[in-house]
Amino acid sequence: MRAKCADPCKWYIYASHVPALGTEDFVVKTIYDVHTNCSHAWRNKNMTSNWVADKFEESVRSNMNMPVRQLLQSIDEQYSCEITRNKGYKALAMAKAAIKGSASQQYIDVGRYAAELQKTHPDTTIDIKYSPRADPESNPRFMRFYCCLGPMKKGFREGCRPLIALDGCHTKGAYPGELLIEIPTTSSEYTFISDQQKGLDSALLELLPDAGHRYCVQHMYRNFKKKHPGEVLKEKFWSIAAASTVEFYEAALEELRAYDQQTHAWVKRAAPPHHWCKAFFPLHVKSDMLVNNLSETFNSHILNARELPVIGMVEWIRQFIMEKISNRVYWMRKCSGPVGPAIKALIEEREKFSRKWKPISNGKGGYQVRGPKGEQFAVYLRDRTCTCRLWQISGLPCCHAISAILKIGRNPNDYADQCYSRDLFFQIYENVLYPISGKSLWPQSDIPILDPPLACVQPGRPKKARRKGSSENRSSVHVGTNNVQKLKKHVIMHCRRCGQAGHNAATCKSVPENNGGEGCSQPAPAPKHARKSKDTNNGSSTTHGANSQEPDFVHVEVQGYSSSCVNSQPHGAEEQTTSHNDTGSHAERNAQAATSSTKKQQIRKTKTLVRRVRPVNDTDQSTTAANKQSLHSKRKLSEIDKIRINTNYEYLGKEPPFKIGRWAGTSRSSRSRSGRSD
């Protein structure tokens, strides 16, 4: 192989392949390493996207979110070459495809991957659904993939609370779909919590008619806030959901009714209280959770996995859970006590409020606890109950019970339910996930070769960011310099034509009536910045603003032509007012008005456009000639005009022609003249 630089440079190199070395490398035989009369070539046609993807595959593997600008910078630093951004995007896509694997190829290998999971994880349930063949020569098409790993199933049955969070999220790969989480056990003792999605109620009633179903109160509040905003209503709504007894629930409802009857009617029409109020939760679940944060947190952790193909996504989630189990066991071993650190912190927080309550013992494990505002509850330590019902619902002692426990010198952590104990935690987390081998060692499967699902590409740029709810902060605060948070200004757009909010004149649908091409029948609101122009001849003033009764918009422009009353200024420019000179005879004004009307009728077409124009009335039409004459007529200069003329003369280095007061600008003009002597 021989390579040389462009003429007249004499640089060249000669290299050849040596089979005796047993490699595919080339050995340099001759080189003349001196460049003369040539410049550096930044573009190299041999640096293709395939070559860049192969060279930077490991760099992309270490940073899957590498931006294209970082790739271009690395090429410039290592090879002193430049490539286009399009070639950089293509190279990154090829490198990621080589790392993640082809999406269509993963649907072919999904059967072998399922067989590997069943081999390494006993008692694993996997169900793959695919559509039948359209014709004998085609392959069936992939539809669904369900997986429940055996160790996860066993750990849930051995000690987890019977509470199942349901949620779904959209996958954002080459073949978009949905990722759902399910539990295969069908027991009437389980309680499900969801975001009140449509269809879940009917599905649960059909499959599990005796199972409980909770709604996420946060999602209910988002719907509540749309019609009933405000911090006061927010507190009252959440106080209803957090009521732990029926009496507290009815009292909170009555308080809301006294404050706002419409809001009270909305709550009564909402879902039944056993779906979202603590007072109606079953006691065997041992959970007072009102929101579906379990699912939301899990979805935020697997955000990167949702962009991968089917095998890559499932494998990413499996590895994430495997590492999570290992880390939790590691940190739990470092803790001491009967419960974990999170439960211990929650009980310590309740201990602070327990000091406001005074327990009185009856000598047989019963305590009458009195506190602020004359409230009083009955606590029974042997039965682990309190009349506030929070201890029975959550399984953790409330502040009333903690005050009685501290009175007898016991540890409140010992009175937590068995489901929170460290021993049960280790028993559950003994069921770990196991590593699997690479693709080359996967067993064969009896599932046929599958084609990928039909991809429906939506228009526009793919959206990856989560939609924020109405109650969430939507970039109303941005961080400025020195990390100072500043409130953004939200400007409400108003139409200059109809005065309504939410649109502008270009998209206004309230078309005014056409009054013969001379103006609208109804006046539009005045501009925000109205200007006044004084007639220098007669001293009268004309206001284009709030006091003006003339319209700002008329149908005047036609296809290919425009009438003389169209404003020639660009859209949004400030309107200029001209002085009206009432010179000329009455007969001349009538003749000019008739001529103008005849010309408009000749050029008027069927298709019209709405444009911003200068208001026109009968007086303007009759004084068209007078206005033209007044534009060229001389008027007496005011002091402000003389000052402006003097300023222009000084800028040009000339002597100002006017002397106003004691100032004529001679010193500045002399400096300007000396500076412009050249």
Automatic annotation (TrEMBL):
<dbReference type="InterPro" id="IPR001878">
    <property type="entry name" value="Znf_CCHC"/>
</dbReference>
<feature type="compositionally biased region" description="Polar residues">
    <location>
        <begin position="563"/>
        <end position="582"/>
    </location>
</feature>
<feature type="compositionally biased region" description="Polar residues">
    <location>
        <begin position="536"/>
        <end position="550"/>
    </location>
</feature>
<keyword id="KW-0238">DNA-binding</keyword>
<dbReference type="Pfam" id="PF00872">
    <property type="entry name" value="Transposase_mut"/>
</dbReference>
<dbReference type="Pfam" id="PF04434">
    <property type="entry name" value="SWIM"/>
</dbReference>
<keyword id="KW-0862">Zinc</keyword>
<feature type="compositionally biased region" description="Basic residues">
    <location>
        <begin position="601"/>
        <end position="614"/>
    </location>
</feature>
<dbReference type="InterPro" id="IPR001207">
    <property type="entry name" value="Transposase_mutator"/>
</dbReference>
<feature type="domain" description="CCHC-type">
    <location>
        <begin position="495"/>
        <end position="510"/>
    </location>
</feature>
<feature type="region of interest" description="Disordered">
    <location>
        <begin position="513"/>
        <end position="550"/>
    </location>
</feature>
<keyword id="KW-0479">Metal-binding</keyword>
<feature type="domain" description="SWIM-type">
    <location>
        <begin position="377"/>
        <end position="409"/>
    </location>
</feature>
<dbReference type="InterPro" id="IPR006564">
    <property type="entry name" value="Znf_PMZ"/>
</dbReference>
<feature type="compositionally biased region" description="Polar residues">
    <location>
        <begin position="618"/>
        <end position="630"/>
    </location>
</feature>
<keyword id="KW-0815">Transposition</keyword>
<feature type="region of interest" description="Disordered">
    <location>
        <begin position="453"/>
        <end position="483"/>
    </location>
</feature>
<keyword id="KW-0233">DNA recombination</keyword>
<keyword id="KW-0863">Zinc-finger</keyword>
<dbReference type="InterPro" id="IPR007527">
    <property type="entry name" value="Znf_SWIM"/>
</dbReference>
<protein>
    <recommendedName>
        <fullName>SWIM-type domain-containing protein</fullName>
    </recommendedName>
</protein>
<feature type="region of interest" description="Disordered">
    <location>
        <begin position="655"/>
        <end position="678"/>
    </location>
</feature>
<feature type="compositionally biased region" description="Polar residues">
    <location>
        <begin position="472"/>
        <end position="483"/>
    </location>
</feature>
<feature type="region of interest" description="Disordered">
    <location>
        <begin position="563"/>
        <end position="635"/>
    </location>
</feature>
